[in-house]
Amino acid sequence: MPNSHVELCRVTTKDGLLLDGALRVPEERTSQLPVDACLLVHGTGSNFTAPGLMETYALQALDAGIASLRVNTRGHDLMARIPTEKGSILGGAAYEHIDECRHDLTAWIDFLKERGYRRIALVGHSMGGVKSIFTVTKSSDAPVACLIAMSPPRFSHGAFQRHKLAGQFREDFRRADALVGRGEGETLLQVRQPMPLVMPASGFVAKYGPHDNFDIMRLLPHLRCPALVMIGTESARNSAAFDGLTEALRKMAAEKPWLTVQAVEGADISYAGHLAEPFERSIEWMRTAVTR
After folding, report:
1. Are residues 64 and 169 in the same domain?
2. What DSSP string describes 91-138?
3. Which of 111, 123, 139, 202 is deepest in the core (most CB within 10 A)?
4. Does this model's pTM top 0.90?
5. Does residue 85 sit in the same domain as residue 150?
6. Which DSSP letter does residue 285 get?
7. Mean pLDDT in the chain?
């Protein structure tokens, strides 16, 4: 493990939530890369202390002389109590409203800027990638040097409805929609797709309904910074959330010079057996795509 200073951090979001994270700063800032800090955003059901891909990415960043800040969003873990200045509220993946993620990420970006970091790479895994894309495209106060999304799923209701492997999604959505229609949206459901999760019926409809507010194919054209999107070939092969997404993004990238799309051969959503590869791809891409 590279030598570093570790600091537990806390921010208060614009709407009053208290979120925790961990900042690691290399003893010597020797990086020749065009970023000085990576802001790492977890996926569904995860958090800023979880082992695996984001831990590996953070340590690799330190080894390259870059500070890394791993953070919680209000959607951390599957269910959670999120502290506020006036008590606590229900949160976690089950109860979060994705559009509120912009408050979380802008608070963390501001934290890094207050510490003197000016060239921030916003790095999100899975749902964290979707949140990163959503925040940068929807918020004018979230300036970053670049964005890196590792396996951001596509929130396309139509794609889920049509996919041959999404029968369970269709069944679960019908149940949730019926409950909402009867005024019973707070009823907890055990949903099976896109991933097993207990959540209120209203939350399932809000995340996966036909409005497609969080569809990265709709969001990415409005991005204002260089972006790298990586998708594992196993995810593309086995999940309705990734079916055809790599090809669709490559077509977009052909017309958007700031967008780079890469397939990670053999990788699934967790990048098991490929944990080091996303950072290695990131730094190679940064050297040519991101200006100092």
Report:
1. no
2. ESTTT--GGGHHHHHHHHHHHHHHTT--SEEEEEETHHHHHHHHHHHH
3. 123
4. yes
5. yes
6. H
7. 95
